[in-house]
Amino acid sequence: MKKIIALTVVLLFMVSCSTVPITGRKRINIVSDAQILPASFAQYEGFLKENKISTNVKKTNELQHVGMNISKAVDKFMRANGMVKEANSYRWEFNLIEDKTINAWCMPGGKVVFYTGILPVCKNTDGIAAVMGHEVAHAFAKHGQERMTSAYGQQLGGIAVALASNKKDPKTRALWNTIYGVGSTVGMLAYSRTHETEADKLGMVFMAMAGYNPNEAINLWIRMSQQSKGSKPPEFLSTHPSDQTRIKNLKAYLPTAIALAKKYNTQQP
């Protein structure tokens, strides 16, 4: 029985290899949008009910305006590159939460949250666009689905049941948490850093496509570095690249991002 399950998993992985658009990175994903998006939307709705949405109309409007501009750039790229079905599956939404935490995130399917604590580090509209581009890129590249696939891969015996079941049992909730790195071990951290680096690059392209200054992505991480004051853990123990690594990578990628943004903005669906 174990051999059959293992063989099934191997076959699933073999037929589920695809390429991330723009970066060209090979990925393995056995989790479909039909499986993960309903859960993602429900989780997001539940989060909004349990947390305080900001009453700052000016900042909320700015955030949502930036979000819509960048999501339109992503949508344009997808429709011009044969990804119409995927483009139609997104349900873009952008909310500002009253919380001092310096953070933002995006669930599969385009559900974005910014915490008010990150706005001073963003500093300006282009800074918001840098963070927004990065978070939207996670959804575009299906990092959530890929992380879920990795979680399934570590639990071979339960993969058939997990894929077939929609029940919100403890194991399913635990697998969902792995999308966001909750409870990750050191062995999974490099995988997450790959996603973060890819989201940095894609985010720079998308913010440039939307008309924002991609240089601000570099400035953002300089401010992040200043904000942390050296208190972050060593890079090999972090789910994110170090600030200095990100700054170096973004500086190197800037000319490519600008060129790609110009290229993709001329494409027609």
From TrEMBL:
Its cofactor is Zn(2+). Residues 73-252 form the Peptidase M48 domain. Transmembrane segments: none annotated. InterPro entries: Mito/Outer_Membr_Metalloprot, Peptidase_M48. One of its GO terms (cellular component) is membrane. Binds 1 zinc ion per subunit. Pfam families: Peptidase_M48. It comes from the Bacteria. GO terms for molecular function: metal ion binding; metalloendopeptidase activity. One of its GO terms (biological process) is proteolysis involved in protein catabolic process. Keywords: Hydrolase, Metal-binding, Metalloprotease, Protease, Zinc. Belongs to the peptidase M48 family. This is Peptidase M48. It comes from Lutibacter profundi.
